[in-house]
Amino acid sequence: MTYGWLAGEIVRRVSRKSFARFVAEDIAKLLDADIFVSLPAQHDHRAAEMIPPQHMAPPPPLPEPALMALSNPQQDPASTNLRVWRAAEIPAANGQANAMGLARFYAALISGCEGVRLLSPETRQRMTTPATQNRADLFLGFKDSWGMGVALNVPGIYGPNPGAFGHSGWGGSFGCADPDADVAIGYVCNQMGPELVGDPRTAGLCAAVLSCAAAQR
């Protein structure tokens, strides 16, 4: 959550636009992609009702300060269906998109999407350079590796290529890209999974897509 507010403020000061407006005008419009931060009310009929997990995964054994940070405020899955949530502008938490929108966005981070490339190769290289690595994350329960705003493929959930990167959302939705395979993937769901991280749908879908892509070469 903190990272989103900090990055969003940089965007606001550089672009002189709110984060939601920047996403709408400088990303979504360029890519013809359904990606929103702060969903306009006229699109409410297109938003799927989120279904909370049937059961919650037990929290990992954490020290008390980490538990307090994880549960304060307590997150309620049902709140994502409220108009106030959809309308809010929370850069790290309430991006709303469909699968094609996510795929187009990640494609534009690597080889481009219909002639639109959001980052230069040099900037993408900087973005995917590990900012943290070989560090046990107290919240996630494993050794993670983060770039500048993206999760690096250390656990291997985004396919076999360690150079892949992406980000997963609350409940199981995700987007990712494999630059070597020149493949971008977007997946969204409304049945939320119970896992805090490592939804099994992610690894299975990425493996299937990348296997099919390799077979077509």
Shape: globular
Number of distinct helices: 7
CATH domain fold name of the largest domain: Beta-lactamase
Count the beta strands. 8
CATH architecture of the largest domain: 3-Layer(aba) Sandwich
- Rg for CA atoms: 17 Å
Strand order of the largest sheet: 5-6-7-8
Unreliable spans: none
> Overall mean pLDDT score?
90
- State the name of the first-level CATH class of the largest domain: Alpha Beta
Distance between the termini: 40 Å
Which structural class is indicated by helix and strand composition? alpha+beta
Task: Describe this entry's structure for a reader.
The N and C termini lie far apart (about 40 Å). The protein has about 220 residues and is an alpha+beta fold. It has two domains: about 1-40 and about 60-95, no CATH class; about 100-215, 3-Layer(aba) Sandwich (Beta-lactamase), CATH 3.40.710.10. The longest helix has 16 residues, at about 200-215. The chain has a four-stranded antiparallel beta sheet, with helices on both faces. The protein has a two-stranded antiparallel sheet with strand order 1-2. It has a two-stranded antiparallel sheet with strand order 3-4. β6 (about 165-170) and β7 form a beta hairpin. The protein has helices at about 1-15, 20-30, 65-70, 85, 100-110, 120-125, 200-215, and strands spanning about 35, 95, 130-135, 145, 150, 165-170, 175-180, 185.
Question: Keyphrases for this structure?
Answer:
217 residues; alpha+beta; Beta-lactamase; four-stranded antiparallel sheet; 34% helix; 14% strand
Task: List the topology elements.
Layout: H1 2-15, H2 19-31, E1 35-37, H3 64-71, H4 83-87, E2 95-97, H5 99-109, H6 121-127, E3 132-136, E4 143-146, E5 151-152, E6 165-168, E7 174-178, E8 183-187, H7 200-215
Antiparallel strand pairs: 1-2, 3-4, 5-6, 6-7, 7-8
